Each structure stands twice: as C-alpha cells, then as structure tokens.
Amino acid sequence: MQLCAVVNCSNSTYHLEKWRSEICPKHGTNNGLGCCDCPPPFKLFPFPTEKKNPDARRRWNKLMNKRDAETKKNWLNKPHDRVCSRHFPDGTPTKAHPDPVLHLGYTMSSSDQKVTPKRPPPSKRVAISEPSEKKPRMESMDEVDVVMTPTEKAELDHGYTKTYKCDCREDCDCQGCFSKQVRINSRENRVEQLEQEVISLKTLQEESKKTPRGKKQVFTANTLKSDSDVNLCTGLRSKQAFNDMYEYLEPYAKKMTYWKSTNTEKSSKKKKGTPQKCGANRKLNMRDEFLLTLMRLRLGLTINFLAIIFGLVPSSCSQVVNSWVRFLSVTLKPLIVWPSRIAITESLPPQFREKCRKIRCILDCTEIFIERPRCLDLQAATWSDYKKHNTMKLLVGITPNGHISFLSKAYGGRASDVFITRKSGFLDLVEPNDVIMADRGFPIQEDLLLRNATLSIPPAAQGKRQMTRSKVGQTKTVANLRIHVERAINRLKDFKILEGTFPITLLPAADDILTVCAALVNLQPDLIK
C-alpha cells in the first residue's frame, strides 16, 4: 500500500480504492469507471529519483521534516512513499511550484515558503572589440582621478612595494632611478649566483656518471699488511706467495669469461665489433676479485657481507666468486699431482722408511654437511647413516709427506667407501708393487691384487678372541701412520666454507671448490717432515 509521507496526512491507495468501489451519484456507475469521468479526491505522486533528479529528491525529503526512528538521522523516502496532490499549490508538481509546501503538518518559515524560480538562461554575449593601444595620459598627482594599472595600485596599497618612477634622462641620480638601479644590481648578483650553482651541479652530475655506482669499497688487497693477515684471509703462506700466485694467474685471468646463470636468457642481438676483453665490465680490479674469492673460501663469509666490504651489489659479488672458482679450479688443478714412485721414495719421511718403505698413498673418505634438498630422491641419495645428516662424500689420498695426491669428485653421503674408490678412477693410478694404506672400511684387497698391489689395513678382530701381540703391534703401526690423512683432511676443512653446512646453491660448483681448496693446501708447508 502506498501512503502519503507528509505528517498527519492519511491519504493512501486504500482510500482511492474505496472511492472507486462507491457509486457515483451523477453517473450511476463506480467512480472513475465506465462513463464516469469525475476526478479522484486526490492523486499520489512518487518522490524524484536519485538518478534523474537528486536535488529535487533532497528538497522533498527535507520538507517532510521527519527523523528516522531507528537511526535518529534525517528521514529518507522509501520506494512505497508518496506525496498527495493536496500539498502542491497547483495540485501537481509544476515548473512554478515543483515542491510540496502546503499542509505539511508544521509551520514553515517565510523563507521556506518562497518558491525560487529556475535561473533564466544566459543571454548572448557580444564580442567586445579590443581597445586601441594608447599611452596613458600623464597627469599630475594632485588630480583626483588618476589612471593606474593593477601593479601601481598594489604598490600604492602596500608601502613595501612602492617604487619611484620618473621620465628622467640617462645619468639621472634622483631617488627613483637610484632605487631602480639598486634592484637591478641585486637581480644581476642573484642571476650570477644561480649560474654558478648550475655549473657546480652539472660538474657533480658528470663526475657521478664517471664513477661506478655502488657502495664504497672499504677492503682491498692493500689492506693486508702482514703475512699473518694473508694467511688468515687466503690460506696462503705469506704476502709474497699471494703476489706470486696473482702474477702467475693474471695473464690467464684477463681472458676469463664471467660466469652467467643458466636461467639468464641470451639476447638475440649480436654485438657489433669485437669486445676488448671477455666477460662483463669489471667493477673491481683483478687482484681484489682474486682476494674476494679466496676470502669466500677461507673464511666462509657470506656473499652479502663480501658485497658490503668490497663495494658491490650481491649479484655482482656472486658472479665474481662463481667465475673465479671455476677459473682457479682449472688453473690450479695441476697442483694436485700423482707423484712417481721415485719421487715418493726420495721424499719419504723417516718414520715411513722404518716401517713401510713401499707405501704409495694413504686413503680415507670424508663427509661434508650440506643443506637438505627439497627433492625426496636427492634427500635419500645424500643421507648418511653414519653422520645422521645429508652430506656429500669424497675420497682423499695423500702422499707419505702429507700432500694431497688424489681427490675424487663429490658423491652423495649414501655412497660407500668401496663404491667411491672403484668409481673415482683411483685404481687406474695404482702400479704393481704399490702399497696402499687405508682403514678397515676399505675392503679392496681383490681390486688391488688384480693390479699386483698390496692393501695395508689394521687386522680384523676374530670374534670374541683377544688379538695376538703381533696383530696389536700391526694395528698400532698402521694407525700411527694412517693418522696423517686425517690431519690433511683437517687442513682441507680449515677452509670455513667446507667446515660448516655447505650451501645447496653451491653444489653445482662443489667439485671446483674442493679442487681449489686442495690445491691451496698443497701450497702450505709439508705436513710430515
């Protein structure tokens, strides 16, 4: 049912339906039906919509002068609300009286009762011809009507902007000309200052373009002053050894191509001309890049920390380390050499001369902790039951004087010692009459017999029986000599990158890192004298 929204007005569609059900006394039919054309007692008009006429809707709601009982805010019409014709002066909304103003249930102020007609349309504007340029007539200051420009008016109103003007000739020294010249001089001085600032800013901009972007480098090769500093940061004996190695590597490093990630897309455009050198532009000199790589291996410093002290971004620092590790692996690999039997005999330490003159190599396997891979297959392949951790395993062989003569590739921690010995290519280096010393975990007697060589390991225990005196003496002899391979492995793990948990992101370069570390270990003094 539709109701009139005006206060104390009860007109609704119910009354209209009741009126239509009654008989018209004039026409004898129902009111408003058939031949009856009698007008209804009132009509109901809907509120203007928000979309078509929001202003009128807002006025009508305000004229209702009601508040919402729930929200206690100004009343807003609902879809079923109406306003009957008895509240409009013309009985319907018209242009002259568009709003309901009669019988609203409250007394309206005189201002609200006034009906403001719509604004008339603007009249046509006539183009005004521009006045001819005429020089303003100079009048005396005593006259009342003075023609002034807006600027002159502002100067007259505000004393601090007052200027003096005159029609003087050149070289006039009146007050107006003097103040004008002062202002001109101050403006010229200000222009000169601004020009100097512009020149200085351009100079700074050009210098900033020439200098490489990045952080300030706070650590260089010149920072290492003493031999102990060099040994601590690089693993080399002295500063002279560092300089000698760099001089040896420098001609090859100039031709080095920088490493790029396999995920990097290769650009299809070819560079014109031949570059002066391979790889990317160097932000550090080669000596500092060499030092950065050795510090990464020796001290195990993170890429982010090295980037800070060498003034690089982490991505460039990682690129330098990966490039130099692969380069050093190839260049320094000849330092891990399998010596001849004659060379070993000539340099045999006294304790080996007395107990085992024909020894050629001492073998042992070592494991290095790695981060747990996400792939389940890799987790199973790298799990070590002995260490109870994911590891990589490698075979290390040393000469009697302690130098690393054999280094296998890295295998998963699940691989056994025998498997690595057979797959690493170590047996291909064994010659007849050689003696290979190892632990009980290397049952490779048959493999060595095929090459007419001998395996020296501690004798195995015979059940619960106590070992004989001769076997105890043999076990002691082998253990005292085999301990040196453990010392060599400890030297290898003095490089902190191998001491802790090896990052899984470096596993693709693990063999290269192990090769470089083993080569640097061989440059140290003899382990056994």
What does this structure look like?
It contains 18 helices and 10 strands. The chain has 529 residues and is an alpha/beta fold. Strands 4, 5, 6, 7, 8, 9 and 10 form a 7-stranded mixed β-sheet that branches. The chain is elongated, with a radius of gyration of 51 Å. Mean pLDDT is 82; it is low at 131-146, 160-165 and 264-277.
SSE layout and pairings?
Layout: E1 3-4, H1 13-21, E2 44-46, H2 54-64, E3 81-84, H3 110-113, H4 150-157, H5 175-210, H6 227-234, H7 239-253, H8 286-298, H9 303-309, H10 314-332, H11 341-346, H12 350-355, E4 359-369, H13 376-382, E5 383-384, E6 389-398, E7 404-407, E8 411-412, H14 417-423, E9 435-437, H15 445-449, E10 454-456, H16 469-492, H17 496-499, H18 510-522
Parallel strand pairs: 1-3, 4-9, 9-10
Antiparallel strand pairs: 2-3, 4-6, 5-6, 6-7, 6-8
Helix pairs in contact: 8-10, 9-10, 10-18
